């Protein structure tokens, strides 16, 4: 069942999603060569709890941390650790919280210091692929229109899209129906309706789309160990088109 949020519920979701975006901004400001991802994780948890919100990932299916910190060829679900980031790495931070019963979910991949032009292009492409999907998220379209737009955008720039992990509905649960794949056929899947809230989250690889889960049962890496980037926003389908909920108070993205 796909839940449709009332205007009051959407207002609550805007609050939690604004919070998660502000916290993401703080984390991104803190990223630099020499910092460990466990330090970013601790900061994230403090900032979430200070706002009377709860980390969404911690304890979810036994996940041990507040953020996912995925470096270079790690696609998603990297577990924060004491290894320090180095100049030239790319870091994906995925952050979720719940506030007053509603979930918020955001991810960004950013450079650590100066990175290669190849890496910069990948980050830019993952942002563009998100917006291609976002611009298809109009009521009366279908989920497959989002999926096909993401895939078309990514592949037209020469990147592959991960198949094994997908976007999702979000609301009173972190993962709700429908699934929102980053690949698929236009005019397929569930019809989009006003009040739906979706996490649209393309994961792009420089090499092949295949991934592999490491022995810790969480860390997902590209099979060919090529670089991977992730860009996620929580989005509402409104009468006036798609709205990004993961924004700062002034309407800016991070
Ligand atoms: N944003 C990711 C998702 O939507 C992160 C989940 S991490 C987990 O699935 F630990 F909570 F699984
Ligand atoms: Co998500």
Number of domains: 1
* Oligomerization status of the protein chains: single chain
Q: List segments where confidence is low: pLDDT < 50 over at least 5 consecutive residues.
A: none
How large, in whole angstroms, is the Cα Rg? 17 Å
Question: What kind of sheet is the major sheet?
Answer: 5 strands, antiparallel
Q: Quickly count the helices.
A: 4
CATH fold naming? Creatine Amidinohydrolase
Assigned CATH architecture: Alpha-Beta Complex
N to C succession of SSEs: HHEEEEEHHEEEEEEEEEE
Report the average pLDDT across residues.
Answer: 98
Structural class: alpha+beta
Helix content: 25-40%
Rounded to the nearest angstrom, the distance between the terminal CA atoms is: 32 Å
Total number of strands:
15
For the record, the CATH class is Alpha Beta
Q: What would you give as the CATH superfamily? A: Creatinase/methionine aminopeptidase superfamily
Q: Describe the global form.
A: globular
Ligand identities:
2-amino-4-trifluoromethylsulfanyl-butyric acid, cobalt (II) ion
| Largest sheet: spatial strand order | 8-7-9-14-15
Protein model, in words:
There is one protein chain. The protein has four helices and 15 strands. 28% of the residues lie in helices and 26% in strands. β7 (167-169) and β8 (176-180) form a beta hairpin. The protein has a single domain (7-244), classed as Creatinase/methionine aminopeptidase superfamily (Creatine Amidinohydrolase). By secondary structure, the chain is of the alpha+beta class. Residues 105, 168, 199, 201, 232 line the site of cobalt (II) ion. Cobalt (II) ion (CO) binds next to loops.
């Amino acid at each position: 069942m796909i839940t449709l949020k009332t205007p009051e519920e959407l207002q609550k979701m805007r609050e939690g999603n604004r919070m998660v975006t502000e916290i993401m901004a703080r984390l991104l400001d803190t990223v630099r060569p020499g910092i460990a991802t466990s330090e970013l994780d601790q900061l994230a948890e403090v900032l979430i709890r200070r706002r009377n919100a709860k980390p969404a990932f911690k304890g979810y299916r036994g996940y041990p941390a507040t953020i996912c910190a995925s470096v270079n060829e790690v696609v998603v679900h990297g577990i924060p650790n004491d290894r320090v980031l180095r100049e030239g790495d790319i870091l994906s931070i995925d952050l979720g919280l719940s506030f007053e019963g509603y979930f918020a979910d955001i991810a960004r991949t950013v450079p650590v210091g100066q990175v290669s032009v190849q890496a910069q292009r990948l980050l830019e492409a993952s942002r563009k692929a998100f917006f291609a999907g976002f611009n298809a998220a109009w009521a009366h379209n279908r989920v497959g229109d989002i999926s096909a737009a993401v895939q078309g955008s990514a592949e037209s720039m020469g990147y592959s899209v991960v198949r094994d992990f997908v976007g999702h509905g979000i609301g009173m649960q972190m993962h709700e129906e429908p699934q929102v794949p980053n690949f698929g056929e236009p005019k397929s899947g569930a019809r989009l309706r006003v009040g739906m809230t979706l996490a649209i989250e393309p994961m792009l690889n420089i090499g092949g789309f295949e991934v592999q889960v490491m022995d810790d049962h969480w860390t997902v890496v590209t099979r060919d160990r090529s670089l991977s980037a992730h860009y996620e926003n929580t989005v509402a389908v409104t009468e006036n088109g798609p709205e990004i909920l993961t924004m700062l108070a002034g309407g800016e993205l991070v």
